[in-house]
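The data are set out underneath:

___
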Amino acid sequence: MTLLAVVPARYDITIYQRATFRRQITLPLDLTGHEVFAQIWDAKRRNKIADFGIDVTNEAGGEFDIILDWEETTPLKKAASWDLMVVYADQTRDYWIEGLVTVDPGLTAPEDADA
């Protein structure tokens, strides 16, 4: 996904329980010296549900992956919201992405294979 629109851009995601979630994001921004944070919160922003891992794959090109391991997706139960913030080297901050999270329970569970 390459963002060229208004900031924050809208990007809704579906997370499958018991599966690793990984999405590549490209911002039109050189990330050198900056930090990226992304979190999932309940609908009323009272409870943080998860912090995404961030794997920068091309700092100068603004490319990175947001990641949740399968252990982190397993307890997800219901729809929520997520957003992504860049904290610049001078400590100013901007939201770049926001969206809804849909949770899909899926069916396969390798840990239940012997059941």
Remarks:
- The CA atoms of residues 13 and 101 lie 5 Å apart.
- The mean pLDDT is 91.
- The radius of gyration is 15 Å.
